[in-house]
């Protein structure tokens, strides 16, 4: 575990293994521990895996108000600078995937391949923006408990809540541990994000798109759209999984990721 003083904040991160660098960006409202199965699997196969807590989450500093995706992306770039990494494989899930898209917009020359998991490129509709902002206010007023209880069976497939109690406990622990002000700031910033569909048509690096078969937040159709937009991309659908296939079906997720990485 390490810390980096960048962009006026302290970022908490893990840097494990040796070899080619892979940076994984977590989703909302989680922390870097969501990538634990991937870190364990990939550090033994020639990869240096870097996972960090985003601004406002985990052990990284909380900045209240609104955190736009370009700010998150600049934090990622600053962490790469701190670690002396010129180019990396960059992956993210859900909001993390949208941050990865913004990273590709800001510094494509530093990215040798992309992993986009359970995410989508469209900007929010006016209704979705209003809902995100209302949810942000709710988190600040009420804390994370109600939100976490309401969304557990959407974050992982409902059948996995009972079938995988350890996974469900991990997901609940991450959600309950998210600082309400940080999560709210991310929701407000995400509500104002741009549409990344045009950007994706110009992606020139190898790209893997992964989605859980039963993902309610970002269904398979969203992954298929990205697959159609990104030239030469690969698409993998993970069975018996919802929004967090990397935790719900880590063996299947890791096998798909390992095959992709081996081909780079």
UniProtKB/TrEMBL annotation:
Keyword Cell cycle: no
Family matches, as Pfam families: Abhydrolase_6
Annotated GO MF terms: hydrolase activity
Entry keywords, A to Z: Hydrolase
Occurrences of domain AB hydrolase-1 (ranges): 22-254
Gene3D superfamilies found in the cross-reference section: alpha/beta hydrolase (3.40.50.1820)
Record keyword Hydrolase present: yes
PANTHER family: AB HYDROLASE SUPERFAMILY PROTEIN YCLE, MONOACYLGLYCEROL LIPASE
Protein name: Alpha/beta hydrolase
Provenance organism: Paractinoplanes hotanensis
Phylogenetic classification of the source organism: Bacteria, Bacillati, Actinomycetota, Actinomycetes, Micromonosporales
